[in-house]
Amino acid sequence: MFEESQGIHEAKFTTSLEGFPGGPDIFLIAVKFCYGVRVELTPRNIIMVYCAADYLGMTDAYGEENLLSKSESFFHKTILRNWKDCILALQSSDPVMPMAEKLHIISKCLNSLSMMVSTDPSLFGWPMMMYGSLQSPGGSILWNGINTGARIRSSESDWWFEDISYLNVLLFKRLIQTMEARGIRSENLAGAIMYYTRKYLPGLGRWQSGHSGKTMTVASFSLTPAAVDQRVLLESIEKLLPEKKGKSFCRFLLGLLRVALILGVNQTCKESLMRKIGMQLELATLDSLLIPTYSDSDTLYNTDCVEQMVHHFISSEPRITSFSPASFDLETSPLSGPLRKVAKLMDSYIAEVASDVNLKPGKIRSLAEALPESSRSLHDGLYRALDIYFKAHPWLSEKEKEQLCNIIDYQKLSIDACAHASQNERLPLRVVLQVLFFEQMQLRTALAGCLHVLDNENAPAGPITISSDMAGQIVQRDGWVAVVRENQVLKVDLERMRSRVGELEEEFTKMKQEMKKVSKTHSSLNSPRMVARRIGCKLLPRVSDAQADTVDSTAPTPRASVEQARSSYHSGHRKTFSLF
């Protein structure tokens, strides 16, 4: 540049280095290097010095071991092999980002970090956990330079979450994408994203639990937090979130949606969050769904968001996969379970928001009808929600109440719900009559089925076989099963009572016979002959007595024959008795 200015013939040469990477401080390092002054290359200035040397063209063609070759050697041999230095170098690359991108410096740092994350940390000796769990057996964690024998947690753990959280949003986003391309597990990437988001969106802490403590590393003590625009952060993070299922992940998404509504992010971001939540709505909890209204709406809760989530849940295909249960908080359920879970969750949600006096009847109806009829085996939850709504809105007309009650299938009410509804003064009279009618039908069907089953049980021949249709009619409702079982127990008890009464009757008959025998024996003991014998007298037998003795004795002895003859002799002469 000086040689080109010689034609101007000016006394002074003045020029401006437009866009010089790193500014005056980095230019001073280049000047000192040219004059032989010792310069120090550090992780915080290496990328800017590298870019400055390239900008100035300080190649080995103009001198051996020029600044470009020196900075390149230091970058590859020191920075890319050390976790902490690599993080520090990326953090200080903001002023020269376009030129660093052109020289592929940023991509090399990101690839190096991805490789270290996917490799056992003990192989490259960094980072050393200062405050971390030492529960894993074996290892190489250092304390004051001494090997403690405790192992650094494996690449599946979160030892690197804290360090990469010091990068700005752009670098963090690119690092996550690089790790994903390298094949890092999605649950680890989701954990890093959740950690980063919680750090720079403090509002998430209100709806998250168990994540207040931070794991500090040696590297993090020399790092400074990045300046982050929360709205830009949220819109960028949303694009990085994987389409996976997990209970903690679903709770995190719902908290993220709350913050998005507060910050007023673009509609695309909000729609994407609601779609991802809807795809795993069965894992949500009631308290996380109670999203307040942050706009000028009169209602307390944002029911529109919840309704859209339900529509996404219905329209989504079961293609979404789950996180590994061993490494992520997950609640698994059978394929038929999610729809029932969401129906139960929505019934509880409607009951919770029903007390809002500004909530319109049309919104209650749309929330209840968002799910198909087959999703609810019982309509007790819907009935409870409508009862709460009628109680909080006593000014509703009979027609509006009847329109809302039309969403209830009275045949799917349990016996307790029917009993409550039949005495509920808040329900329209027509609805109460319908409930009573179906209650009688249910009882009649249940009792008939119960008696049919018992008749089959009492049949003597063959095993009992009940058709599936009959069994379905008997136990079609949980509330009526209890009635059937109670009637079965009552009939069994009645049969036992009948058999017991029969036994008692038999015992009474036996006792009556014994009483007769005892009374007969007692009367024979009181006869005149027995009295005479007791007082030492002897009665002369009569003919009738002799004849009776002969009839009663089946095998008379010789003495009995003599006595008989003697009795007959005396009876022929006199019919008197003598006392001896």
Strand order of the largest sheet: 1-2
Whole-number radius of gyration?
49 Å
Uncertain residue segments: 127-145, 147-156, 210-221, 330-335, 461-479, 542-580
End-to-end Cα distance: 179 Å
Task: State the total count of DSSP E strands.
Answer: 4
Secondary structure: helix percent: 55-70%
Averaged pLDDT: 77
Envelope shape: elongated
Assembly context of the chains: single chain
Structural class: mainly alpha
Family: Belongs to the NPH3 family.
InterPro entries: NPH3/RPT2-like, NPH3_dom, SKP1/BTB/POZ_sf
Region (Disordered): 546-580
Pathway: Protein modification; protein ubiquitination
Brief summary:
With 580 residues, the protein is mainly alpha-helical. The protein has 25 helices and four strands.
Provide structural commentary.
Keywords: Coiled coil, Ubl conjugation pathway. Residues 487-521 form a coiled coil. There is one protein chain. The chain is mostly helical. The chain is built from 25 helices and four strands. The chain has helices at residues 23-34, 46-56, 67-79, 83-91, 97-102, 105-117, 161-164, 169-182, 186-200, 230-240, 247-263, 267-278, 286-289, 303-315, 337-353, 361-368, 380-392, 398-405, 415-422, 429-458, 468-474, 478-525, 528-534, 543-552, 558-573; strands spanning 142-143, 146-147, 244-245, 321-322. It has a two-stranded antiparallel sheet. Helix 8 packs parallel to helix 10 (230-240). The radius of gyration is 49 Å and the shape is elongated. It starts with 22 loop residues before the first helix and ends in a 7-residue tail after the last helix. 30% of the residues are buried. Residues 127-145, 147-156, 210-221, 330-335, 461-479 and 542-580 have low confidence and may be disordered.
